[in-house]
Design brief:
The chain contains three helices and eleven strands; from the N terminus they run αβββββαββββββα. With about 170 residues, it is of the alpha+beta class. The strands form two sheets. The protein has a six-stranded mixed β-sheet with strand order 8-1-2-11-10-9, with no helix packed on it. It has a five-stranded mixed β-sheet with strand order 3-6-7-5-4.
Amino acid sequence: MEFEDLNSSEENVTEQELEQFLTFIVDNEIYGIHILKIREIKGWEGVREVPNTPDFMKGVINLRGIMVPVVDMRLRFGMTEVEYTPTTVVIVVSVMVDGDEILIAFVVDAVSDVIDISEENHREIPTFGCKIDARYMTGMAVVEDKTIILLDVDNIMQDDELEIIKETETN
């Protein structure tokens, strides 16, 4: 009887659906993006500036012939700008816009880890006390006593900003 109980609890653990997230740091907070949205991770190498773009858009990088807009996540979230360091990283993500996939590069303070998050680790989006706008989030997760803000990369940019980015890609 005891063995049956042990087996059934093991099955519950293995049946639990795990999702992987790339975690990174911005202003001493841990953020996560679903791993399937990640296309590439690069060290900071500078950008080609583009005139008449929002302050948080630092410019574009050439990624194997594709011009990819670069967004500073600190500035996007309304935080103070800091000088880039050797740990500053560019995360290239895939975003869906009107059924089209476009690439956007996010500048973050540092990349942390790829972690597995189960449904039981998920928490609701808080209604107050968060450094960033709730519309950018899918929720939060608590893993090993660390709170991770889970981002919705498809909602980080607004429609008019995405239009600027689409124009940048075609130029």
